[in-house]
Structures are given as C-alpha cells and as structure tokens.
Design brief:
Shape: elongated
CATH topology of the largest domain: Rieske Iron-sulfur Protein
CATH architecture of the largest domain: 3-layer Sandwich
Number of strands: 12
Number of domains: 2
Largest sheet: 4 strands, antiparallel
Strand content: 5-15%
Low-confidence stretches: 1-7, 355-369
CATH superfamily of the largest domain: Rieske [2Fe-2S] iron-sulphur domain
Helix content: 25-40%
C-alpha cells in the first residue's frame, strides 16, 4: 500500500504552500485482512440486528393489545414500550452500522479540490468523475457483498415500521364505506330524501319564510340532533363527527331571477333558497364568507371563490370544481328538506371524482319529499 499523499498530483497554481498534513496513519483494517473481514462481519451484523428490530416492531404492533384491555409490562403499556424499543433499535443499529462502516472500511484519505471558475474545464470534470469513482471504490460497496446485502436489507426492513404506521392514519375509504356508519365513505353523506335542513348549533328546522333575500347561514342535517325517548342522542361519537363534517351546508336566499341553475337543477331551489356544501372543493376548509351583492362565497383558507347564483362555479382561486348542491323541497309541515343526498362527492377533489354531477341521481320533477 502507498500513502495517498504521495500519489496525489500537486497543482501548479497552488495559491499557498502546502501547510503540511500529519503523516497518514493506517488503520488495522487497512493492513490486516483478518481485521478487515472481522469489521465487515461486525457491520453486517449490526445491519442484521436492525432488520430483526424492524420485524419485532411489526410483530409487536399486531400482537400486543391496546385500549381498555391493554397488555402491560412492569406496570407500563407493553405495546408502547415494545414499539418504542423496537423502532429505536432499528434506527440505532442501522446508524451504528453506518458509522462503523465509515470508520473501519471506507477509505479515509483526504481529498482536496482547488477553486475553479463557475464552469469547470473538461479536465476538472474528468477529475471529478475520477474522484467519484475513487470514492465508490474506497467505500468497498462493490466488492464487499456482505456489507452491500446488509445495508440493502436493513434499509428495506426499515420501511416496514413506516408502512405499518400508515395504518394508524385511519381506515381506508372502502373500510369506511363498509363500516356501517351512516354517511361514511367518499361518495355519500348522511343526507337522505325528506331529511330536514336545520340551523347549525341549535338544530331548529327552517321554513322558507324564515329566510330573507340576502341571508346566508350555516345549517346541518336534522339527523345529528335527533334523540331517543330518554333524551339520548341517536348519533354519537365517530358517526356524529362523520355526519357533521360531511353534511355541513350553507343556505342562501336570493331573488329567483338572479339564480342561474345548472342543467337539470331547475327544481332544486325553493323560491330562491339554495343549499350548497360548506366544504371547499380545494382542500376541505369550511367556507361561509358571503358577498351579498355578488352572491360570491369566499373560502378564507386559499381565497377560492364560488358564484352561488351560477351553480356555485369557481370564479377565482385554486379550487377545481363547483360546490356540490343539495336539492331542496318543502315537507307537509312547511319546513325545508332535502330531495336526496348530494349527487356528487363533497369535499376536496380526488382522482376518481367526476367534474360534473351524476344526472342519473337528480330527483325528477314528479318526485316529492
């Protein structure tokens, strides 16, 4: 072996004299093949321990109970303890393996690069490629198959905890739709034919005479306020949150002559009273900032603006689709009700959503609430 300081070329335009570097000290792994092999096995072993810990994380995630009947260990939640220890071990052993690889097996020669113009010369580019190839060679990644397989396997297994933890972001859309929760899923809400539109917070039903031209207020489906004979809510917990978050609407009244209904929506208003989803079709912010004279509804998050007098089409901002409209009618007692659920998904756009409503779901002229 030769000292790298003896082999590196000395640039002719060196700006200062060589300040002098200490004599290169060879490591045991540089001069002793047995020590080199031993270090290689140590590094591969550390990557192997990282893989084992990643597998233990997945096993602990699915095998240890949480909640009311959680598994305990030394008086602590076994799941939390096991997940933390396993994930910590995964990262710790991987990190130590990388450090040991760099300290014992990678080349430790010092490489210098002189300053040069913004555009490198062809000679400099060739020298850069040569230096990169030298670094690749000194890392030993090409000839140390055991280390290569070790780091590759550890890196792959480290993805397992990340993938498993994605499960905690919540159920998939299909799981939500099949959960039995009323109005769950991407394509439907709790609104049904004949359900009353009630004021938000207080839950009082609304007659057309209660709404004056220019008024806009927040509303919800009546089902979220229903109670049983003992006064207990019929919808609670997750089901209530799903119903409220997706069923929220805004109700506005304008001069019927100002309303330009979309195709097939001629009977969706009641004397100029229109109902639209309160959830912005950009990223789902709640909106209710109303410009009374223009009938524009503004989202406070990113300034998407919808023209409620023109089927809630987007007139400004990043939103890509109009607000879904809830078709309205009046029941036998004179209160505003929905003719049906929304005919298109509410909320932000997603990859399978059509830009127009499904006209096959639009209530016919002869339908009654």
């Amino acid at each position: 072996m030769t000292d790298s300081h003896d082999t590196l070329p000395v640039p002719a335009d060196r700006p200062i004299d060589d300040p002098g570097l200490p004599e290169h000290a060879w490591r045991p792994t540089d001069v002793d093949p047995a020590a080199e092999k031993r270090a290689e096995r140590q590094v591969a072993g550390l990557f192997g321990l990282s893989m084992v810990c990643a597998v233990l994380f997945v096993v602990a995630y699915f095998s240890l109970d949480i909640g009311d009947n959680h598994t305990t260990f030394l008086g602590m939640g076994a799941s939390t303890l096991a997940l933390g220890a396993a994930l910590g071990g995964t990262l710790l052993f991987f990190g130590i393996g990388i450090i040991q690889w760099a300290r014992k097996l990678m080349g430790d020669h010092e490489i210098i690069e002189m300053r040069h113009p913004a555009r490198s010369s062809d000679e400099d580019r060739a020298a850069t490629l040569e230096a990169l190839n030298l670094g690749l060679e000194e890392s030993g990644i090409g000839r140390r198959k055991l280390v290569l397989f070790g780091i590759g396997g550890a890196g792959f297994f480290m993805l397992a905890p990340a993938v498993v933890l994605l499960r905690d972001l919540g159920p998939t859309p299909n799981q939500v739709a099949e959960s039995g929760v009323e109005g769950a899923g991407l394509e439907r809400t709790i609104w049904t034919k004949g359900m009353r539109v009630v004021r938000d917070v207080v839950g009082t039903p609304i007659r057309p005479a209660d709404v004056e031209i220019g008024d806009l207020f927040n509303a919800e489906p009546a089902a979220i306020f229903e109670v049983d004979e003992e006064g207990h809510p019929l919808i609670e917990g997750v089901e209530l949150q799903v119903a409220k978050s997706k069923g929220a609407v805004v109700l506005i009244r304008m001069d019927p002559e100002d309303n330009n209904p979309g195709p097939g929506r001629e009977n969706w208003d009641v004397d100029g009273i229109l109902c639209y989803s309160k959830i912005c079709t950009h990223v789902g912010c709640p909106i209710s900032l109303n410009e009374r004279k223009t009938h524009h509804l503004l989202c406070p998050c990113h300034q998407s603006t919808f023209d409620l007098a023109d089927a809630a089409k987007v007139v400004f901002g990043p939103a890509a689709r109009p607000l879904p409209q809830l078709p309205l009618a009046v029941d036998e007692e004179g209160y505003l009700v929905a003719q049906s659920d929304f005919t298109e998904p509410v909320g932000p756009s997603y990859w399978e959503r059509d830009s127009q409503a499904d006209t096959s779901k639009i209530p016919g002229e002869g339908d009654s609430a």
